[in-house]
Amino acid sequence: MPEGVARGDHPQRTPFYGAVLMIVAFVTGSLTAPVDMPTAAHAVIIVCAVIVGLIGFGMTFRDLS
Predict the structure, then answer these.
(1) d(Cα 62, Cα 64) in Å, to the nearest integer?
(2) 63 has pLDDT over 90
(3) How far apart are CA 34 and CA 57, in angstroms?
(4) pLDDT tens per residue across span 6-30
(5) How many CB atoms lie within 10 A of CB 49?
(6) Could you give the angle at which helices 39-60 and 13-32 cross, rounded to 10 degrees?
């Protein structure tokens, strides 16, 4: 563990959580696409999945400067 990092505060934790959010968004979109549901409900789920995916992208690639 890097020196000066508190227990449970690993620097790779945030990018990992971001990757998990992107995977969840992808799986949610993939599972809801073939389901026969009202268009409004489908649109809400897809929009939420896109927002979660963008948040995950930001968390994963925040240190590319």
Answers:
(1) 6
(2) no
(3) 25
(4) 666 666 788 889 999 999 999 999 9
(5) 19
(6) 160
